[in-house]
Amino acid sequence: MDQERLYLDFNATSPLSRSVSDWLKSGEVLFANPSSQHSSGKASRKLINESRAQIYSVFGKNEKDTQLFFHSGATEGMITFAHSFSEWARLTGKELLICYAKTDHPAATSLGERYLGPHVKCLELLIDQNLEYDHDKNLQVLQDKKDNNPELIILYHHLWVHNETGIINPLSDLKILKSIPDLYIHVDAVQAPGKIRDWKMLEVGDIFSFSAHKFGALKGIGFSFYNKNISFYPLISGGGQQNGLRSGTENPQGIKSIDLALQDLKSIDMDQNYHLRETLEKTLLKELKGIGGIISKVGKIRNSNTIYFYFNKHSSDITLALFDLNGLQISAGSACSSGAAKASIIMNHLGFKEEAKNGLRISLPFISSESQLTSIITKISFIISKLK
Ligand SMILES: Cc1ncc(COP(=O)(O)O)c(C=O)c1O
Q1: Domain span(s) for CATH 3.90.1150.10 in the chain
Q2: Which CATH superfamily is domain 6-16+268-387 in?
Q3: Is the confidence at residue 342, as pLDDT, over 90?
Q4: What is the pLDDT of residues 279-328, one digit of tens each?
Q5: Protein residues with CB under 6 Å of any ligand 1 atom
Q6: Which long-range contacts (CB under 8 A, 24 or more apart) does 338-342 make?
């Protein structure tokens, strides 16, 4: 085996995109504080303003009815909106219900562990055996809650593209929920850019959150769009930067990197990516016969880069190391922050109790080639032959 290492963990974090990397190498990276009044500060402010305009334009949004602000990433975005809605409800003497499913990202599910006040409750949304939200049943439950408490405000989380499985829960399906007054949909759009065909079409939701490091931009920065009909109460207050929406010195390099990386995503060949993922999946399915399986196949609509699979008898701790030693850097999908294998909530939900710690995720690059795929397949066949 040659020891070329292939990075196949794009859902955890992606390498810098070509334009971001070239821009950093050029050295023409503005450093000044955009709040400063001198010409260097003004140049940083100009960079931010131009990048903001580009980001609005990529997603077909406009400043008149949509607010855009930057934060450190989607985790902060979600906590910000939980806090903001809690304040909105408290100040208007109402109750708030925060909804999410157990299979959502921990950034959403951990909101249930956070004390946001006696007027805030959480509700676990139902999902079915295809890992789709059961919108009809969820609608019924929410309608009952609203009938019992007509003043109730609802913050409804929706994970658009699942980070472990790549399964898409389409935004258009959320339309039925809009019949409930005072229900606001927060879309976790983190895994959408560059991995699904309609990633630029931010429809139906009221709020959309993104993390820049998932699509080729720098780490430590993300952004959210929200409809201006939402009353917003910032989580982070201080010097009043970003018109008070999120205080703290702004990050012009991070913001510019978002603009550049989004422009690069436009040239992705999505058909080719789907074709490569499907080809790899077919091979993997054959190789896993009798010794494992592919979880993400339960999804009706899938993204272009993710395969979530398992071995019947080998924990992901062991198999990850074996993949790494043989040049494939993949992930367990549900690893905790220390990297140790954790039982997958997804696999438990689907009834794979015994195998729940054996899940593995391949998440392919935005741009890959047939020759790269051949190399991946050769390495996988070799690894599986060792396991057998
Ligand atoms: C679907 C999804 N939502 C939210 C997050 C949280 O993003 P961050 O860690 O950048 O705050 C992630 C990160 O893995 C994710 O995949």
Answers
A1: 6-16+268-387
A2: Aspartate Aminotransferase, domain 1 (3.90.1150.10)
A3: no
A4: 999 999 999 999 999 999 999 999 999 999 999 999 999 999 999 999 99
A5: 73-75, 105, 107, 159, 163, 188, 190-191, 211, 222
A6: 341/315, 341/316, 341/317
